[in-house]
Specification:
alpha+beta; Jelly Rolls; six-stranded antiparallel β-sheet; five-stranded antiparallel β-sheet; about 20% helix; globular
Length: about 220
C-alpha cells in the first residue's frame, strides 16, 4: 500500500509540475537552501561575502546519503523541451582534496532511484581547489546518456521530475562514494552559450553603429 502511494505521489507531482521549469530561471541561494535535499546555506559565494550559496559535504561510503547527490527539487521539474532549455549553468567550487567528475542526472521519479529512468551528462572535471568556476552542462539529445530505465530522451525531458548534481567517472544515476566538499551557486537554465554570445555581439554591433550615426 505504501509503495503504491509513493508511485501515486510521484505521478501527481510529475503531472502538476510539467511546465515548472523556464528558460532563464535561477537559484542563487541568497536567502536559504530550504527545500533542497542536501546541503547548507552559507555566505561567501562568487558574488562576494554576502552572497549565499549551497555547500554540500560528502563523507564517502556506499549509501546514497554518503555520495555527492546534492539536490532533488520540484522547481526544477517540468518540460525542458517545451521550455527551450538547452543547457544548465552553475557556479561550482571544489573545496575538497579530491578532483571531482561532476555530472547532472535527470530522472522521471523522485524515489527510489532504482526503477526509474535516468539520463546523465558526461562528467566535467573539477580539480581540487578549483575556486568558483562557471560550468555549463549541455543537455541536448546528443549530450545525455541513458544510464537506467526505458524512457526515451524525448519522453523523459518532457516530464522531468528530479534533477541531481553528482560525482561519477561515468554517467550514472548515483554518484561515486567520495569524501568531498562542494560549493554550488547560481544554477541557471539557459540556451547554448554560443547563442547568447552571438546575440550579445550582435547587440553590441548595433549599439556601436547607432553611436557612430549619432555622432555623424
Amino acid at each position: 500500500m505504501r509503495a503504491s502511494r509513493a508511485w501515486l505521489l510521484a505521478a501527481l507531482l510529475a503531472a502538476s509540475s510539467a511546465a515548472a521549469v523556464t528558460q532563464g530561471q535561477q537559484d542563487d541561494f541568497t536567502s536559504s537552501a530550504d527545500g533542497w535535499a542536501r546541503g547548507d546555506a552559507v555566505l561567501g559565494g562568487p558574488g562576494g561575502a554576502s552572497d549565499g550559496y549551497l555547500e554540500v559535504t560528502s563523507l564517502g561510503g556506499s549509501g546514497q546519503n554518503s555520495r555527492l547527490v546534492t539536490f532533488n527539487q520540484l522547481q526544477w521539474a517540468g518540460d525542458y523541451l517545451d521550455a527551450g532549455v538547452e543547457s544548465i549553468g552553475v557556479f561550482l567550487d571544489n573545496r575538497g582534496a579530491t578532483a571531482l567528475q561532476i555530472q547532472l542526472a535527470f530522472g522521471d521519479m523522485i524515489a527510489p532511484i532504482v526503477g526509474g529512468t535516468w539520463y546523465a551528462t558526461n562528467p566535467v572535471a573539477l580539480p581540487a581547489g578549483s575556486g568558483w568556476t562557471f560550468v555549463v552542462f549541455p543537455i541536448g539529445s546528443g549530450d545525455l546518456q541513458r544510464v537506467q530505465g526505458t524512457a526515451t530522451y524525448d519522453d523523459l525531458m518532457a516530464n522531468v521530475v528530479t534533477l541531481r548534481l553528482l560525482h561519477g567517472d561515468v554517467p550514472q544515476a548515483m554518484g561515486d562514494p567520495i569524501v568531498a566538499k562542494l560549493g554550488i551557486d547560481q544554477i541557471v537554465a539557459m540556451p547554448e552559450p554560443g547563442a547568447n554570445a552571438l546575440l550579445a555581439s550582435g547587440i553590441a554591433a548595433l549599439v556601436a553603429c547607432a553611436r557612430r550615426r549619432g555622432r555623424a
